[in-house]
Amino acid sequence: METEHLLDERIGQKQVDRVLDGFFAAAKERAERISSSYLSLWETLEKSTVGGKRLRPQIVLAAYTQLGGTDLEAAARVGAAFELLHTALIVHDDVIDLDFVRRGQDNVSGVYRRMAETAGEPAEVARHRGLSVGIIAGDLALTGAFRMLDSVTTDPGTRELLAGILDEAVFASAGGELIDVDFSFSPGAPPVTEILDMERLKTAVYSFEAPLRAGAVLAGAGADAVAALGRFGRDTGIAYQVVDDLLGVFGNESATGKSSMGDLREGKRTVLIAYAAQTPCWAELSGLIGRPDMCPGDADRAREILVDCGAQDYAQDLAAQYASSARSHLASSDVPAGLAAALDDIVSSSVNRGR
Fold first, then answer.
1. Required co-factor (predicted)?
2. How far is the CA of 151 from the CAs of 54, 80, 329, 337, in angstroms?
3. Helix (H) / strand (E) containing 102
4. CA 355, CA 162: separation in Å to the nearest integer?
């Protein structure tokens, strides 16, 4: 039976790819009727979805199939909706962070900034063009997520529940993003608890809690099972984001696809920074981070401080604690053994990234 579920999940993942291919094919056909430049935007947006792990669709499919769901087309469409939401949020997040690269390649904004530079536009004009197109592209992916969810064949009650889950994911993520932006204007660093609340809202809800709950709801699972999976997703998502904070400073750029200086240069308020701000090391560290002109030597010194003051160890321990808490929710009698095993693997991969 477990082998059959694994096979179903693999088939479902291929169906997610086919659903997304169909979504982009239809969008490009519509766009081409408007203009060639609009077609190019959709082609760029589609390329930005290639190379990811499709984690959120995997989570939807795992919950759905292990809880007895059999309509893989419906599950694939729910998974595709969360993949489009992920695309929208990372495109907009890159705009907010003024990032033009993701996974070591130009992101949507980066592609259009480079096009403007190649056309001879001044640097500031090219930058503005890139960010503007990033906003447009993120909007398109976001509306596409809701359109995709609306295409799922299911009963009206389940459709309403799914729409509510997706809406809550967007609502929570936007709230978390705003809190993150507000933190950047604070002279010090907020407490660790506030950082964790922000990271749950910004990332854990849409990446783990909502996909798990959506897969369970689509499968017709009971309220207790949906709630247990939501708690598991919350703690897994927080562990995932704490590890992301660590990788943003100590990670190998070739492995993570992101700069190991970006968070430090931005002065991003993470668990690492919140912990360090409560130690005597903060006096020196606060003068190094958050500077657009930060050099590699300053970044190396900042990393040394984060190690010496115990921030790195603290963050690693915190991620392990949340991973352990996540696993405790899998002991619920409402979570089938096969699903518990699959989700245990997701916890492990979430906290062991970059190792």
1. Mg(2+)
2. 20, 11, 32, 31
3. strand 101-102
4. 35
Final residue in a domain of this structure, among 152, 178, 206: 152
> pLDDT at position 10, please?
74
The backbone region for 186, taken as left when phi is positive above 0, alpha when psi lies in -120 to 50, beta otherwise, is: beta
**End position of a domain, from candidates 152, 170, 186:** 152
Structure confidence at residue 261 (pLDDT): 83
Q: Is residue 67 part of a domain?
A: no
13 contacts: CB under 8 Å, gap ≥ 6: 54, 57, 58, 61
- Tell me: the pLDDT tens digits for 80-126? 999 999 999 999 999 998 889 887 789 999 999 999 999 999 999 99
Side chain identity at 331, as an amino acid letter? Answer: A
d(CA 17, CA 15): 5
| Residue spans of alpha helices (H) in the chain | 2-32, 36-48, 55-66, 72-96, 108-118, 123-150, 156-184, 192-199, 210-218, 223-250, 253-256, 262-266, 271-276, 282-288, 296-308, 311-329, 337-351
Pair (186, 327) in one structural domain: yes
Count of all residues that appear for the chain in the document: 355
Residue 127 falls within a domain, yes or no? yes
Count of domains observed in the chain: 2
> Range of 255's domain?
153-355
Q: Are 157 and 146 found together in one domain?
A: no
Over residues 158-181, the pLDDT tens digits come to 999 999 999 999 999 999 999 999
How far from each other are the two terminal CA atoms of the chain, in whole angstroms?
32
Q: Are 192 and 274 in contact (CB under 8 A)?
A: yes
C-alpha pair distances (Å), 54 with each of 83, 112, 166, 184, 339: 7, 25, 17, 30, 18
Same domain, 215 and 275: yes
Residue 64 lies in a domain: no
User: What CA–CA distance (Å, rounded) separates 73 from 70?
Assistant: 9
Per the CB < 8 A criterion, the answer to whether 235 and 312 are in contact is no
Q: What is the DSSP letter of 101?
A: E
Q: In this structure, what DSSP letter does residue 67 have?
A: T
- Same-domain status, 186 and 142: no
Q: Are residues 166 and 140 in the same domain?
A: no
